Amino acid sequence: MTETNLEETKLEEENQDNGRNEGLEKEKEDRKENGREGRSRFWKGALAGSLVTAFVVLAAVGMAAGIWIMGRQTQETRQAVLPEPEGEYGLDMGRLAPKLGYMQQLIDQYYLFDEDEERENPEDWIYTGYVYSLQDPYSTYYTAEEYESVQESSNGEYCGIGVQVSQNVNTGIITVIRVFKDSPADKAGMRPGDVITGVGDVDAAGMDLSILVSDHIKGEEGTEVTVTVFRESIEDSLDLTMTREIVENPTVEYDLLEDNVGYISISAFEEVTGDQFKTAADSLLGKGAKSLIIDLRNNGGGVVTASTDIADYLLPDGKTIVSFKGKGIDDSVYTSDDGHEVDVPIILLVNGESASASEVLTGALKDNDWATIVGEKTFGKGIAQGIFNLPDGSGLKLTTAYYYTPSGECIHKLGIEPDVTVALDEDLKSKIEIPKDEDNQLQTALEVFDEGVDAVNEKISAENGETAAADDDFEAKVKENLEIEKEAGAAQ
Hints:
It is built from 12 helices and 22 strands. The protein has helices at about 5-35, 40-45, 95-110, 120-130, 145-150, 185-190, 210-215, 275-285, 305-315, 355-365, 440-450, 455-490, and strands at about 65, 65-70, 75-80, 140, 155-160, 165, 175-180, 195-200, 200-205, 225-230, 235-245, 245-250, 250-255, 260-265, 290-295, 320-325, 330-335, 345-350, 370-375, 385-390, 395-405, 420. Helix 9 (about 305-315) packs parallel to helix 10 (about 355-365).
């Protein structure tokens, strides 16, 4: 081989190496692009026949970054004290370290891509996987940064996009259930019912809701974030880009309706919610309210003490509100004892997304015969979580207790049945704001005040019977038309 040919060969090899590198980079980009293009197909399949918007109830973080995380339970934050190693553990630590070391050697020797290019802290992934092995969707490991974020106090003001979301406990699907009016999400075109499939280049499917919010949706005011949603009505995905801004949302809103009916909506249970509710109730009663409607629809919970404070304020003294029984903690019973009660007819509006602390309040008033429940069966989250602060600043959220309604019922995975069952009209579910005169569930609650539970239930049964009869007539007509078409075809 001549010197020239040798140099040409070297150059060719270098070009081939560059081509391989470019190919690897292109492969990485293609994988990302294919992932984005495949989202619509995936979500069409994932949601077929099972688009569930009643959620996860994952968490212990409440509203963060302008996003309400459903099912936040109040929990104590505790400093974990690690015991001295003695006895057997669930993991064989003597076997674990050598095996991980061997795996690292294999990665160093054979792993195709640059492991440090986009790799996150592998140690944190070990802890995450260990907790995941519990197969409890409510138990989560938080890195130090995540733990600091989820522990931020809730004061009703956040920098984010302004939506209320929920996560399905079985599928991990994250669904928008409320969009705050004039929020960044509203301006970008996000609507209730949208399924969040990604934030930027991050796949949202199955990710812990609090982590998705703290690490990817939350951000500085004025910065942009792109949220990818799947919309069932168009069977397609949409990339919605919005600018983060300060989002304000009081947890309690109230109004005096016709016939002196006081209306109070509670969107979540935060530290300030109890005082806000008392202010609202006192104001409405002072203006002449003769009855109260407390709207807990789409309220996934929050601070349990806010819920028990409201129950205490409404109930006479000496009534059981809720009890907790768990592992490693003392059993506890909450009882009304503040010397105050609200003795007017009360209706609670609930639906399948009323969970956790919402169900504590619902169970307390229902079992003590202090309120009538109208709407749909509640979610059924009858367990509570505790957050433990680990010595290195990280955190661990664990399910620690069941809670029981005053009658001794554990409503976990069962929910609470309403006294009057009425579903929200289908055409109202995607609306940003539902006018009160169009809200059929609210209107049904008003009818209960006027006509009583039995009369309204009879009316609903009759209407359902008429609807069923109409459906049967329609099906019969379709079958008849099909037979006519078949006969006409045969005659030709």
